[in-house]
Design brief:
Number of strands: 0
Distance between the termini: 49 Å
Length: 113
């Protein structure tokens, strides 16, 4: 019953966006928010854990990719695709953040070994 409830309202939301022809704007806004959230996530992840958690970004990226392929709704599939590739991008940025910390551009966590 719960899944029927979610699908019913997800479809109604998508139809509302389609009726007003703003699906593209919703995808653009969602992309902006997702990418904007990943910047501090990468910085904080490197600060607290270092690069050893790169595999979590990989798992999130693969999961987002699989879900984007499964979900038929254009809006949610697109946003999951953006999330997936932002996760993959986060792996690269995690290692680059380590270099930025070594250059002194960002603070180093003295408590982490």
């Amino acid at each position: 019953m719960w899944s029927k409830f979610k699908i019913k309202y997800m479809t109604a939301f998508t139809e509302l966006l389609n009726n007003y022809n703003i699906t593209g704007l919703a995808i653009g806004f969602g992309t902006f928010v997702i990418i904007g959230l990943f910047h501090p996530i990468v910085i904080k992840s490197e600060y607290f854990f270092g690069v050893k958690i790169w595999w979590l970004f990989l798992i999130a990226g693969v999961a987002g990719s699989v879900l984007a392929l499964i979900i038929k709704d254009v809006l949610f599939s697109s946003l999951l695709g953006v999330f997936a590739f932002s996760s993959f991008w986060g792996i690269l940025e995690l290692f680059e953040q380590r270099q930025r910390v070594a250059k002194g551009w960002f603070p180093k966590n003295q408590k982490r070994k």
